[in-house]
Amino acid sequence: MNRIVVGPFNRVEGDLEVTLDVADGRVAAARVNSPLFRGFEQILVGKDPRDALVFVPRICGICSVSQSAAAAAALRAAMGLAVPDNGRHAANLVLATENLADHFTHFYLFFMPDFARDAYAGRRWFEAARARFKAVEGSATADALPARAAFMHTLGLLAGKWPHTLSLQPGGSARAVSAAEKIRLYALLREFRGWLERRLFGDSLEAIAALDSMAALEAWAAARPPGASDFRLFLEIAADLKLRRAGRATDVYLSYGAYGDADDALFARGVWRPGSATTALDAGAIVEDVSHAWLRDEAPRHPLQGHTWPDADKAGAYSWCKAPRLGGEVVECGALARQLVDGQPLLRELVTGEGGSVFARVLGRLLEFARVLPAMETWVRAIEPGAPFCAQGELPDDAQGVGLVEAARGALGHWLTVRHGRIVGYQIIAPTTWNFSPRDAAGTPGALEQALVGLPMAEDGSVPALVQHVVRSFDPCMVCTVH
Amino acid sequence: MNLIWLQSGGCGGCTMSLLCSDARDLLGLLRDAGINILWHPSLSEQTGPEALALLEACANGEIPLDLLCVEGAMLRGPAGSGRFHVLAGSGKPMIHWVEALAARARHTLAIGSCAAWGGISAGGTNPTEACGLQYEGETRGGLLGAGYRGSAGLPVINVAGCPTHPGWVVDTLLALALGEFGADALDALARPRFYADQLVHHGCSRNEFYEFKASAEKPSDLGCMMEHLGCKGTQAHADCNLRPWNGSGSCTSGGYACISCTEPGFETPGHPFAQTPKVAGIPIGLPSDMPKAWFVALAALSKSATPRRVRENATADHPQITPAIRRTGLK
Ligand code: SF4
Ligand code: SF4
């Protein structure tokens, strides 16, 4: 048995270290360490509850709006507020913009550059991949960054700035949209759609969203050359490297449901596993286990009873990340989970047949561009200038509130307890906390830890690019993980 | 010029903000100015041992290091060990790497308020003993010490903001690359003066409301947010309302108060952020260059003269009364 420590893992958000036990040329066990701890859950204690809206977005600079949305939802629950329609549309637009921008950043800056590495020289697609995706120098960087920045102008209008807006409030949005601004927002979305249709897909978003089976996807790919678009090139690479066979975790998928409340949400809430229907989520069955984290505590706790007490010297611990479990199970969250729970047929067929994989996770994200951007266009059209954007209310001195939202990377929950007008408990479970959790008290590894097991090492014994693909397929956000 | 970018006790938001730069081709622009990104954790190809080898080579002087950009607070805890952030794969605390690289760098830049002062990471009880590179809140010192100078002679350049504006970073880097950035380009807190010699209040779209003390009372109101909603735009040093964020935005145009995120200690205002502390009904944090008695007298006068349009629009989320059309006879 040989032990290899991999890190710093760059082109992920934040700092990540992975320890691999290697036997017979394959990964026998993996341990995932998030080596940065800041302690937001302590920083928040004692604050005025509304101050959470200032602090929590600063947990993460890449999914700052989703943290704001979760805090606003938790405060809203504590205040018992109902958001006016305009406020809902604005908040959906703000969150969807960030989520799509994250998918965009992930594909162009974090994930694809690995295929431009010299290790792949000689592959039939290599020269194309290198010209387009080489880190810093590839044509995609020069091309995609301005498109992303232009798309983010929607947040200049709707949220003042990104990251770290305060426009998302418990009652909706503090930024009303005028008739002229509504048109500008629409134009910005159409501009981004144009870029996606030209560069990313080489086809209309509606045509991509309509891909409802593996046969349909294969026929779509067969009808165009590999150089036709970035998506087509990705399909080519994925087929050649068999990315459908790499990186399977537990195949239990969790989504809190996205863009709207339970009934009228764009994407459904629930838990899905291959071969069965979506089941309802029991949020009361969520606990966090700290047996392998540098945190002091005995039993696994529900987040409303949770604590975060650092203990850097704890024996047997190897990460600052807690281990969330749902009814005792390791679950995976993210765009793939969101789409599986919602019933997207192509992904359901793929995962039912072969299980989750690097390919399925990336495909889940790409399909979201095609499903979410058209919805954003309808939300903009539904805004009624002149009608209210923000409900007002009082926060009780003693209250609890839970905010469950979907960040780009999946299920994000905030659990808030207020006593005498001050925060006495604030617990956060971020998507990557689920996906990159360490072992629990029963010794069960987290989702990534399981997904790495069995991967072959390179012939010279070094860590192959495949390990990088598996890790990055989750689009981890390490600053969120341990907050 | 070789550039290394490190991230420690922060959120990565200053990098994400930088990627919102409205330059047509941000990385091409930097390359064109002669800035060579040796390593950046979000952008570079090198990972694991290759990345560590690069840092090592800069730390021991084999590769010259011109620009050291540090994002995020320096986490000194627990008990001074730095173990709240060990650089992955290296077994060593990030504060070790920052000290070693800063000792070689021609210029060291604190990117954002965490790296400058400790920032939000130093909020509350500061559980991780977070501080900035050369400041701890308003006190000089921090990780590197008050006497630290880059080998070119400047103290740590505090490109403060939470997050920092992409333009503030790009302009500072370009000015350094062009050799047009000296000690006189820094303000008393070592922030670049090109943005820190302004106030957020300058150019705020709510200035007309401010003049008449026509105030917003609740989120989404259009009025000035100084009197009730905690706005510190009259004291915060930054050009946010002159240099837009994300195309056209700013905090105040986005419907919420400036929380003075470029200032040391902004994370501990001593009152709820969205509420203006007052004594006898008068805000305690008045504009920094205005005597209190004058402010009170002028406010009373201007309130009595507030046009109905301004007064009514201040507490609504869209204009209730539009400016009158008058035939003035002027051509
Ligand atoms: S809202 Fe703030 S920045 Fe704008 S005018 Fe009022 S005090 Fe000045
Ligand atoms: S307006 Fe104030 S809080 Fe907002 S970014 Fe500028 S300085 Fe920071």
UniProtKB/TrEMBL annotation, chain B:
Reactions catalysed according to its record: H2 + A = AH2
GO terms under cellular component: [Ni-Fe] hydrogenase complex; cell envelope; ferredoxin hydrogenase complex; membrane
GO molecular function term, any single one: metal ion binding
Record region (Disordered): 309-331
Known EC number: 1.12.99.6
Named cofactor requirement(s): [3Fe-4S] cluster; [4Fe-4S] cluster
Positions of the Cytochrome-c3 hydrogenase C-terminal domain: 198-273
BP-aspect Gene Ontology terms: anaerobic respiration
Predominant location category: other
InterPro entries per UniProt: Cytochrome-c3_hydrogenase_C, NADH_UbQ_OxRdtase-like_20kDa, NiFe-Hase_small_C_sf, NiFe_Hase_small_N_sf, NiFe_hydrogenase_ssu
Residues the entry annotates as binding [4Fe-4S] cluster 2: H201, C204, C224, C231
Alphabetized Gene3D superfamilies for the sequence: Cytochrome-c3 hydrogenase, C-terminal domain, NADH:ubiquinone oxidoreductase-like, 20kDa subunit
Binding-site positions, [4Fe-4S] cluster 1: C11, C14, C114, C162
Binding residue positions for [3Fe-4S] cluster: C240, C258, C261
Protein location: Cell envelope
Stretches of the chain forming a coiled coil according to its record: none
Keywords of this entry: 3Fe-4S, 4Fe-4S, Iron, Iron-sulfur, Metal-binding, Oxidoreductase, Signal
Ranges of residues in domain NADH:ubiquinone oxidoreductase-like 20kDa subunit: 11-176
Top-tier EC class: oxidoreductase
Subunit structure: Heterodimer of a large and a small subunit.
PANTHER family: HYDROGENASE SMALL SUBUNIT, NIFE / NIFESE HYDROGENASE SMALL SUBUNIT FAMILY MEMBER
Family stated for the protein in its record: Belongs to the [NiFe]/[NiFeSe] hydrogenase small subunit family.
Name of the protein in its database record: hydrogenase (acceptor)
Gene name per UniProt: hoxB
